[in-house]
Amino acid sequence: MTYVLGLTGGIASGKSTVSDYLYEQGAVIIDADVVSREVVRPGAKGLSGLTAEFGQQILDEGGTLNRAALGDIIFNSKEKRDIVNGILHPLIKEEMLAQVESAAQKGTDVVVLAIPLLFESHCERYCDAVLVVDIDPNTQIQRLIERNGYTKEQAQARISSQMDPTERRKRADFVVDNNGSKEETYRQIDILLENVLE
Predict the structure, then answer these.
(1) Is 10 marked as a binding-site residue?
(2) Using one digit for the tens of pLDDT, what is the confidence trace for 32-64?
(3) Residue 12 in marked binding region
(4) Which of 18, 47, 97, 197 is within CB 3.0–4.6 Å of 40 for a Cys-Cys bond?
(5) What are 88-103's pLDDT values in tens digits?
(6) Is 161 known to sit in a ligand binding site?
């Protein structure tokens, strides 16, 4: 029986660190970010839907999606963010569920659905449990500034556009505190996996 674990958390909370470790422990990772890039490649339904809605301004010279241009549009408007999600989420969900089915048929023990907007897209219904990666807000802002070159205001805007961390924690089955060392984070995941696979 395949156990489907949803993995989510705020931007720059350390989801990739947790995902990479789960992969090392034998889990199959189905990453919404990877799938979302597939559905907006040139010629794909997602990109066609976005350009129909927002025009050519979201494309670069080669006709591929300019993520920064789209990001500037959606991070400042909940209405436009909802439009983008309405176009892309059904396509992403369909592909991810097909990958879960494929992994289950191969007898995989643990499949991880790594979805930044897991609760917002109501994908928790496809999971046996949800793991939230939690981090101190100041550390989160600092990581975004260092990783993406954002100003403090840009980092704060990205964080504010997401679900409130308290609400995310409340809805989680498991919470990994990612404020300490990687080793401390890994120990928490080991305990979780022991509980899941016992």
Answers:
(1) no
(2) 989 999 999 999 999 999 999 999 999 999 999
(3) yes
(4) 47
(5) 989 999 999 999 999 9
(6) no
Domain ranges of the chain: 1-27+109-197, 37-101
- Is 15 part of any known ligand binding site? yes
13 labelled ligand-binding: yes
- How far lies 55's CA from each of 50, 63, 97, 119, 135, in Å? 7, 12, 30, 29, 37
| 152 known ligand binder | no
